[in-house]
Design a protein that fits this description.
This protein is of the alpha+beta class. The chain has 4 helices and 6 strands; from the N terminus they run αββββαββαα. The strands form 2 sheets. A 4-stranded antiparallel sheet has the order 3-4-6-5, with helices on one face. The protein has a two-stranded antiparallel sheet with strand order 1-2. A hairpin with a 2-residue loop joins strand 1 (about 40-45) and strand 2 (about 45-50). Helix 1 (about 1-25) runs antiparallel to helix 3 (about 105-145), helix 1 (about 1-25) packs parallel to helix 4 and helix 3 packs antiparallel against helix 4. The chain is elongated and about 70 Å long.
Length: about 180
């Protein structure tokens, strides 16, 4: 039971951390990042298709993203999808290539973005703690059913707490890195 419970907790906590990484990738920092285009789908002959599956995406410099469709006639659809998205950037279309200029962020906007990143991190911490609570409840229940000793149950709960602490630390490290990225001009 111990190995199974620990593995279950690690899997769930790992998924929570991965979700935070994806959310952080979509947070604008004032630097060009292809992560802000994740989740944008384009109408490709009637089928919603991820942008990166119909165009080459590039970051030629820290303040620019370029999008070059594999089919020239898709440029209008890509532009429409970008305008409808919540990316907040105006596409510049020259007929062959779309450029997204990343404007420098004001200090006030940087503070708002940091605040948002802190909220995402706190939501992840809460999710990790909820996983710990659920696993501990399951451990208690199964310990009674399987007649596991109190010492073994306590050791397993301590292991789950260590995993929780490790994942909280990883979240804090991701947040610190993201804050630095946002605040660096």
């Amino acid at each position: 039971m111990a190995h199974e419970m620990k593995k279950k907790a690690e899997e769930k906590m790992g998924k929570g951390l991965e979700t935070l990484r994806r959310e952080f990738a979509a947070v604008r920092t004032g630097r060009a990042s292809l992560g802000i285009l994740d989740g944008i789908t384009v109408d490709y002959y009637g089928t919603p298709t991820p942008l990166n599956q119909i165009a080459n995406l590039a970051v030629p410099d820290p303040r620019m993203i370029t999008i070059q469709p594999w089919e020239g006639k898709m440029i209008g659809e890509i532009e429409k999808a970008l305008l409808k998205s919540d990316v907040g950037l105006t596409p510049n279309n020259d007929g062959k290539l779309i450029r997204l200029a990343i404007p420098p962020l004001t200090e006030e906007r940087r503070q708002q973005i940091v605040k948002h990143a802190k909220k995402l991190a706190e939501d992840s911490r809460v999710a990790i703690r909820n996983i710990r609570r659920d696993i501990n409840e399951e451990i208690k229940k199964r310990s009674k059913e399987d007649h596991v000793s109190e010492d073994e149950t306590k050791k397993l709960q301590d292991d789950i707490q260590k995993s929780t602490d490790d994942y909280i630390k990883k979240i804090d490290e991701l947040l610190a890195h993201k804050e630095t990225e946002i605040m660096t001009v």
